[in-house]
Design brief:
With 104 residues, the protein is mainly alpha-helical. The chain folds into 2 domains: 1-67, no CATH class; 68-98, no CATH class. The protein contains 3 helices and no strands.
Length: 104
Amino acid sequence: VFCSSRYATDFSSFHCLLKYVAFLLNVNPLFLAWEKLTGVHLKKFALRALVRVPVVLVIGFLALAIPFFGPLNSVMGAFLISFSVYIIPSFAFMKSYKQRQFIM
C-alpha cells in the first residue's frame, strides 16, 4: 500500500523505467537476430521498431500462457545443474585433450 506522497509517485515511475530498460537489455539479442532474419537490420529505426512488435507480442503471449514459469524454471535448474556443471565440462575436456594413437 503506497501512501499518497510525491516520493511514492516518483519511485513508481522510476521503477517502471527500470523494468522497461531491463526488458530491452534482455531482449535486445533476440531483436537483433529477428531483424537480421527479416533483413531490416540496416534500415531506418522506424521500420526496425515496427518489425520488433511481433517479437514483443509473442513474448507477451508466452508470459500470459505460462504464468508459473518461475517455479518451473527453478525445478529444471535444480535437476540440470549437475549435468551442466560436471558432465558437460568433463566430456568437453576429454574430447579436447584425448590422446591420438598413431599406428607405426
